[in-house]
Structures are given as structure tokens and as C-alpha cells.
Specification:
The complex is a heterodimer.
Chain A (H helix, E strand, L loop, with lengths): L5 H4 L9 H5 L5 H31 L9 H37 L7 H20 L29 H30 L12 H32 L10 E2 L2 E2 L7 H34 L7 H14 L15 H29 L8 H24 L1 H7 L3 H31 L5 H28 L18 H32 L68
Chain B lengths: L1 H22 L24 H28 L12 H24 L3 H31 L8 H32 L4 H31 L1
The chains are: A mainly alpha, B mainly alpha.
């Protein structure tokens, strides 16, 4: 069978004729990407509101009285699960993945547009199922985002009835949606690249998103297996995870199950999940920094290998989340070692970003501010990760606010800064308008400084020994009362930062109508998405001819060139010898 | 988690090996101009649908290896009592092998563009598959009637779980199979269903392999 490469077929996209066909049941990767972003943002705002309620309770216990202890646990659980899975994973892969992969690779659309559309609608269903669990009897599950059995499905804990079942069903749906999307991203990046776009000419954003997708495809099944088995435990009385429980003299029907098995399955997904969020963040950060520093990325090949190495290593570090589960000390030794090893490629990436900035022609545009802010927060969160990766340090710090401070810095604040940076960077391409600069700068400074006001004190009270997951502390001998003052100040900072995010949402809507008109390449960037004939790109992305790629994605400030950037698809002229210095 | 790690190490190893080979000696900053001849983009000379299927098979491998890992971990606990495997499983294994063989024959006929061969082989393969599903249900019935119910022992629960997960994958394949048969009934030309038949064949071989692994696991423990 003669093989027709996908990139060469091109013209047979079915253009929708109706408004509903173009914007609702759309098979256009750009519309699907925006749909993903809207839903992820909406559900992210729900999670933000939950965190505001939790902070008001912790900062001023007994004053606002917004939530009861059970609801507090539901809020903790839903905040974590929404932010990690339904917001960040969906935003980076469903949102940026859909928007960027075809455009950056020079394709007209995803490899399987219909499946891509299904992916979004199943994702939406999963979000709706998840949110419906707020309204069932017993409320949403309060098991913590790790959903550990037995308490997740034991009567008496928050949301142990319908709440946990809806959570598990919602996760299963999300995994189905992600798998459909992920098959698309991988196949598109491998098959639909345009002429001349070799693997090593791809922008690092695509590399990051693709490696994250591969991780997701291999890791999400672990969560699916855990969810299915827990569903059976909860509904049909099996004992995969459920041990025998004696409650007020009544012995449960379950016996012999092992919660540790669930922990293994959960973290076998859970740790790669950290990198599913982190790798696209790394990729996009690289592109933002290189573009706005007008300098090629330092060590491109090393950056690619670091992504690959982190992806591979991320599968053998999972048990560092389980140091306190009573494991064999040699086991802990092994996982502490792998955890420290994975810091090496990660550190290489950080050095390379800093070296890209070094002697660069730095433009402090809003996307660049977010990218530089990200370097700070990521180093901060990464280094506290080295603390926690060591068994001896982790054991006393386990389940304290130090852990909360660490993971919010490394996989809460850092990815969000890059999400914002990416939004400011690519918004002009997909709307034809620039986002308002002043609002953007206020948004950045409040968010960046505010997150330090929130999370630095958390490290401190964590070292004091303040445990996480508590509804209220009261007076205790184990740490000083002044912790309450710190908690109040954290709450005030959190509310300010939360409000700043509303400014960002306002900016997005306001600029859609009133923003400065953007030309097709406002940042003077090299990558293909900025070279489309139309802005925003039409269905099919390119005109009659696909672009042809002649160079890598980072030809900035090339000596001897007329401008400080050369687009990937610019035809090299005969007398241009600017690329010879190697 | 050892069995999962082995499967994932093989998959990740293949991915990393291929990627590193593609990227090892390339200096993208040093070269300009058009690289590659006609289509430098797609490194694989196979269709996108097949790539999609292969990626999906990697996902399914991960899924089943995780089930197997969970099986091994749960097995070590004292309350594990294995039920005797119903004899009908041997028959089912033979049925699935035959369906795989006939899918292969259908694929060969499709490549040679023989409409009649495709249709008849495809139908027979489907019948064998339905017989397999029926046989699995029978096995469930046998166990259930003998008192080995889902909640009575984790070994039983795993038996039902593994067979159900495998059967659901087969049902997914049968959906594609039924669409293809429907097209052939409507006299669609063979070359238009060639890819679908080929993908079905690969998928069935994969599921046969999975079943053999699961069956061996059930027999050996």
C-alpha cells in the first residue's frame, strides 16, 4: 500500500458549515484547545474558591464559619485533585498541546480530529461528574487527593458514599479522555510534521508536551487500575485494598486487603503525574526565555535529552512518597538515590535557562517576567524537594506544612506562572489582540511576590511541626501560639493573590474586545505558529501550501543576519553565511 | 511492581533508544536548508492509524502489566485461596487462537485485494471471538455456581477482574470489526477497509498474547 504522509494530504479537512459545527462540535485543534482551556480555567476557579474557604478557616478559625470539618476535608481533596489533574494536566496537554503541536509542527490539524473532539467532550463529562459530587448526600470525597483506602471508602469519613464513587468514575472518564487526546498528540508529532521539520528542529514546547504525553499514556493506567479496584471494594464488597475493620465491635465484611497496594498503584501514577505537569512547563519556559531574551536556547540537545531522561527516571522514584508507610530501609535507600539522580537532568535544565539569559538581549515583556519568576519558584521548590527526597529528612517533615510549601512551590506556583506566561505569549496568535500590559504587570508582581508571602512561612511552620490536613489547631504544646499569626498572614496574602487571578480573567475578556490589535508575529519569534498566513489561523492553519522548514527553532540574534530572528521557514539566501560559526 | 517495571522498561527503552538515535549526532544549530528528500517529517513509513494503534497497545500493555503487578502483590497475603480454573478456559484459549489465525488470513486476503477472502475470513474470525466471549461467560457461571463469588476471596475477585478487563478490550475490537463487516456487506471496495482489517489483526494478536499471559498467570498460581 503506497504510503501518503499525513503532512502531504492536507486539503481534505471537512470545513464546518454551521456555527455549532465550528465552535461546539468542532474538530479544529485550535477550537478544541480553547475549549479545553475554558473548562480547565472554570474548574480551576472552583478549586481556587475552595482554597480561599480553607484559608479563611485556617487563618481565622471560628470567625467566618464558612465550612464544617467534613466539608473542609472535601475542600482539601477537591482542591488538590482539580488543580493537579483537571486543571494543570488538562491545561498543558489538552490546552497548549492542542493549540501548539499542529501549528509548531506545521500540520493542518491533529492526526485524528474526530477522536480529538471526543477527547474534549469526555473530559467535559469527567469535570461535570466530578463537580456533581459536591451536591450528592454526604458531599464530595474528603479522603485527600491521594484517596488512600481504607478511610476513603469507610463509613464515617467525609464523602465515603457517593462522593468517592463519583470521584473514581470521574477519574476513569478523564483517563479515557486523556488517552484519546494523547494518542493524537504523539501520532501528530511523529507523523504530521511538515517538510524539513526534523525531530531536532522541533521547539522545546513540543518536545516537553510529547514526552509528558508519553508519560501520561503509560502512567494513567496505574490510576485506572487503582480506581477500578477501589470501585469494586466500595460497591461489590471485594477486598483488594480493604483490611478487616472492627468498628464499635462490628467487624466489616472485608478482610485481608492491603492499603499499601493502593499506595503503590497511586504513586506509580502520582509521581510521573508530577512530570506530566512539569515537562510541558519546562518546554514552554524554554521557548519563552529564548524568544524574549533574543538568544538561542543554551544547550538545545542537552535540553532534549534532559526531558527524555527525566521522563524515564520519573517511573522509578514513586515510593519516595511512601517513606513513612513502613517500607524496608533498603527500599527507601534505593528511592532516595533515584530521587536525587532525577535532580541532575532537572538542574541541567535550570542552568541552561540561566545561561540562555546570560548576555541575552532581555526584553522584560509580561511573558518573560513570568518565565523568569518561574525560574525562581522552581529552584525554590526543587531544592526543598531534595530535602524531602532524603528519607532521614523526610520522616520528621512528613505530613507537615513543609511538604505543602514544597509541592505548591514546585508544582503549583511554577506551572501556573508558565501557564500565565504562555497565555500572555500566545494570546495574540489565537485572538488577534494583545493582552493589556499594565494589568499583566500587576498580575505578575502580585502573584509572584504573593506566592512567597504564602508559601515561605509554610516551610517555616512545617519545620515547627504544624501538621497538614487539620481543620483547626487550637492551643497546643507542640508548637507556639504565634503560628496562628502566621496562618492569618498567609490567609491575607492568599486572598490578595486569589483576587489578582480575577484581574487576569478580566484582562482576557476585556482584551478580547479592547486589546491592542496584534500583527501576526508580535514577539518577532522564529517558530512556525507565528508564520501563519492568517491571525488567528484559519481552519487548516496554512494557505494552499504547507510551510517548509529550513532551520531549527532558535535562530535568534544570528551574527550577520538583517534582523535578530530568522523564522524557521524563511528560505536561506545564497550569500547568507551566518550559520557557519559552529 | 516488578512486572510493570519490566514492561515499562521495555517500552520506555524502545522510546528512549529510538529518540536518542534520532538526536545523537544531530547539530540543529549548525545546519541550514532542507533536510531529507521528499518528506522529512514522517520518519515512519507506516500509516498514522497504525502508529495510533501501536501507541494504544503500549497503553494497554501498561494497564495489564499493572493488573498483574497488583495480582502478585495481593497474592502474598494470607487470605488468598485460589479457585480451580474452569476447564472451559482451555477451550476458550483455542477459540481465541483460531480467531487470531482467521484475522491474519483476512489481512492477507485484504493485502492481495481478494474481497471474498476478506469477508469470509473476517466473519469466521468474528464468530470465534463471540464464541470466546461466550466461553468466558460460561467460565464465570461455573465459578459462580461453585460458590467462588466475587467478594468471597481476592483470588476470585482478581479472576473476574482480569477476565473482564480482557473481554472489554475484545468488545472494543469487535466494534471496529462490526463496522468493517458492515462496510463489506455494503460492497465497499476492499482497499478502503484494508487498514481496518490489518489493525484488527494486530489488535487480536496482541489480545491473544495478553490472554496467554493472563491464563499462564492464573494456572501457575
Amino acid at each position: 500500500m503506497a504510503h501518503v504522509a499525513l503532512a502531504d494530504k492536507g486539503q481534505d479537512l471537512a470545513h464546518p458549515k454551521t456555527w455549532i459545527g465550528a465552535y461546539v462540535w468542532s474538530q479544529d485543534h485550535k477550537v478544541i484547545g480553547i475549549q479545553y482551556i475554558i473548562v480547565a480555567t472554570a474548574v480551576g476557579l472552583v478549586a481556587l474558591a475552595l482554597s480561599a474557604m480553607m484559608r479563611l478557616q485556617l487563618g481565622f478559625p471560628g470567625i467566618f464559619d464558612l465550612i464544617q470539618p467534613n466539608e473542609y476535608y472535601s475542600a482539601v481533596t477537591m482542591h488538590g485533585m482539580i488543580m493537579v489533574v483537571f486543571m494543570l494536566t488538562a491545561f498543558f496537554l489538552g490546552g497548549f498541546g492542542n493549540l501548539l503541536i499542529p501549528l509548531m509542527c506545521g500540520a493542518r490539524d491533529m492526526a485524528f480530529p474526530y477522536m480529538n473532539m471526543l477527547s474534549f467532550w469526555v473530559y467535559l463529562a469527567s469535570v461535570l461528574v466530578l463537580c456533581s459530587s459536591f451536591f450528592v448526600p454526604g458531599g464530595a470525597t474528603g479522603a485527600g487527593w491521594t484517596l488512600y483506602p481504607p478511610q476513603a471508602i469507610t463509613e464515617g469519613s467525609a464523602g465515603s458514599g457517593m462522593g468517592i464513587i463519583l470521584m473514581l468514575v470521574s477519574l476513569a472518564l478523564f483517563i479515557v479522555a486523556f488517552t484519546m487526546g494523547g494518542l493524537n498528540y504523539v501520532t501528530t508529532a511523529f507523523q504530521a510534521r511538515t517538510r524539513g521539520m526534523t525531530l531536532m528542529r522541533m521547539p522545546l514546547s513540543v518536545w516537553g508536551i510529547i514526552m509528558a504525553t508519553i508519560l501520561g499514556l503509560l502512567a494513567f493506567p496505574a490510576l485506572l487500575v487503582a480506581a477500578i479496584m477501589m470501585l469494586l471494594d466500595a460497591t461489590l464488597g471485594t477486598s483488594f485494598f480493604m483490611p478487616a475493620i472492627s468498628d464499635l465491635g462490628e467487624v466489616s465484611s472485608t478482610s485481608g486487603g492491603t492499603p499499601i497496594l493502593f499506595q503503590h498503584l497511586f504513586w506509580f501514577f502520582g509521581h510521573p503525574e508530577v512530570y506530566i505537569v512539569a515537562l510541558p512547563m519546562f518546554g514552554i519556559a524554554s521557548d519563552l526565555i529564548s524568544t524574549h531574551a533574543r538568544k538561542n536556547i543554551f544547550g538545545y540537545r542537552m535540553m532534549v535529552w534532559a526531558l527524555i531522561a527525566i521522563g524515564g527516571l520519573s517511573f522509578i522514584v514513586w515510593a519516595h512518597h511512601m517513606y513513612v508507610s513502613g517500607m524496608n530501609p533498603y527500599f527507601g535507600f534505593f528511592f532516595a538515590t533515584t530521587t536525587l539522580i532525577i535532580a541532575v537532568p532537572t538542574a541541567i535544565k535550570v542552568y541552561n535557562w540561566v545561561l540562555t539569559l546570560w548576555h541575552g538581549n532581555i526584553h522584560l515583556n509580561v511573558p518573560m517576567l513570568f518565565a523568569i519568576g518561574f525560574i525562581f519558584t522552581f529552584i525554590h521548590g526543587g531544592i526543598t524537594g531534595l530535602f524531602l527526597g532524603n528519607v532521614a529528612v523526610d520522616v520528621p517533615l512528613s505530613d507537615t506544612y513543609f511538604v505543602i510549601g514544597h509541592f505548591h512551590m514546585v508544582m503549583g506556583v511554577s506551572p501556573f506562572l508558565i501557564v500565565f506566561g504562555g497565555m500572555y505569549h500566545w494570546y495574540p496568535k489565537f485572538t488577534g489582540r494583545m493582552l493589556n500590559d499594565t494589568m499583566g504587570k500587576i498580575h505578575f508582581w502580585v502573584t509572584f511576590l504573593g506566592t512567597y508571602a504564602i508559601y515561605l512561612p509554610m516551610h517555616y511552620i512545617g519545620i515547627l511541626g504544624v501538621p497538614r490536613r487539620y481543620f483547626a489547631y487550637g492551643t497546643t504544646l507542640s508548637f507556639p501560639d504565634s503560628v496562628q499569626v502566621i496562618n492569618a498572614s498567609i490567609t491575607i496574602a492568599a486572598l490578595i493573590v486569589g483576587t489578582a487571578q480575577l484581574l487576569f480573567i478580566f484582562n482576557i475578556i476585556w482584551s478580547l474586545f479592547n486589546g491592542k490589535k496584534a500583527d501576526s508575529n508580535p514577539w518577532r519569534a522564529t517558530t512556525l505558529e507565528w508564520q501563519t498566513p492568517d491571525t488567528p489561523p484559519k481552519h487548516g492553519n496554512w494557505g494552499p501550501e504547507l510551510p517548509v522548514v529550513y532551520r531549527w527553532a532558535y535562530s535568534y540574534s544570528v551574527p550577520g543576519a538583517d534582523e535578530d530572528f530568522i523564522p524557521q521557514n524563511e528560505v536561506p539566501s545564497e550569500n547568507s553565511k551566518h550559520e557557519v560559526e559552529t | 511492581m516488578a512486572s510493570t517495571l519490566i514492561v515499562l522498561a521495555i517500552i520506555m527503552g524502545a522510546v528512549v533508544f529510538w529518540l536518542v538515535r534520532q538526536t545523537l549526532n544531530v547539530q540543529p544549530w549548525a545546519e541550514e536548508g532542507l533536510v531529507g528528500q521528499h518528506h522529512a517529517g514522517g520518519p515512519f513509513s507506516i500509516s498514522s492509524a497504525k502508529i495510533g494503534l501501536i501507541v494504544f497497545l503500549a497503553v494497554a500493555s501498561s494497564l495489564f502489566s499493572l493488573f498483574v503487578s497488583a495480582y502478585f502483590q495481593r497474592m502474598d497475603f494470607g487470605d488468598w485461596t485460589v479457585a480451580p480454573e474452569p476447564v472451559v478456559l482451555w477451550l476458550n484459549t483455542v477459540l481465541l487462537i483460531f480467531s487470531s489465525i482467521f484475522f491474519q488470513r483476512a489481512r492477507n486476503a485484504a493485502i492481495k485485494n481478494r474481497a471474498g477472502g476478506v469477508k469470509s475470513n473476517l466473519m469466521i474470525a468474528g464468530l470465534f471471538t463471540f464464541a470466546f466471549i461466550g466461553g468466558q461467560l460460561w467460565a464465570w457461571q461455573v465459578l459462580h455456581n461453585n460458590g467462588y463469588i466475587l467478594s468471597s476471596n481476592p483470588a476470585n475477585a482478581f479472576f473476574y477482574l482480569l477476565t473482564a478487563a480482557h473481554a472489554l478490550h475484545i468488545l472494543g475490537g469487535l466494534w471496529v470489526w462490526s463496522k468493517t463487516v458492515f462496510k463489506l456487506q455494503n460492497k465497499v471496495e476492499v482497499y478502503k477497509v484494508c487498514t481496518a482489517v490489518e489493525l484488527c489483526a494486530i489488535y487480536w494478536h496482541f489480545l491473544l498474547l495478553v490472554w496467554l499471559v493472563l491464563f499462564a498467570l492464573l494456572l501457575s498460581t
